[in-house]
Amino acid sequence: MNLDAKTIHKIADLARIHINEKEVETLIPEMNKILSFMEKLNELDTSAVKPLVYMNEATNVWREDVVKQEISTADGLKNAAKHTDEFFMVPKIIEK
């Protein structure tokens, strides 16, 4: 597939980017090279290749979620600028 200036402008419009005519002339051969490379990749037989989920084979090691240290409500609110007996007081940011 060979791209022309009209197709380049359509792609730029779909991508919501502005390109000028000087850039179009340099983009045509570059994008044609990319498309020919992709066509070459489509010729490969990938039927025996497993789908790639992660880039490496490492698996995540999970640990039990255990509470190790607790602070009291009073200690947690000690340095708060504004608070009630149980909660932090913050300025209202959402208005109706």
> Percent of residues in helical segments?
25-40%
| End-to-end Cα distance | 54 Å
Query: How many β-strand runs?
Result: 0
Secondary-structure element series: HHH
Rg (CA only): 29 Å
Shape: elongated
Averaging pLDDT over every residue, what do you get?
A: 88
Number of helices: 3
Q: Unreliable stretches, pLDDT < 50, 5 or more residues?
A: none
- Largest sheet properties: none
Secondary-structure-derived class: mainly alpha
Give the strand content.
Answer: under 5%
Overview of this structure, please?
The protein has helices at 5-14, 21-42, 73-77. It is elongated and about 70 Å long. It has 96 residues and is an all-alpha fold.
Architecture blueprint of SSEs:
Blueprint: H1 5-14, H2 21-42, H3 73-77
Provide a concise account of the structure shown.
This protein has 96 residues and is mainly α. It is built from three helices and no strands.
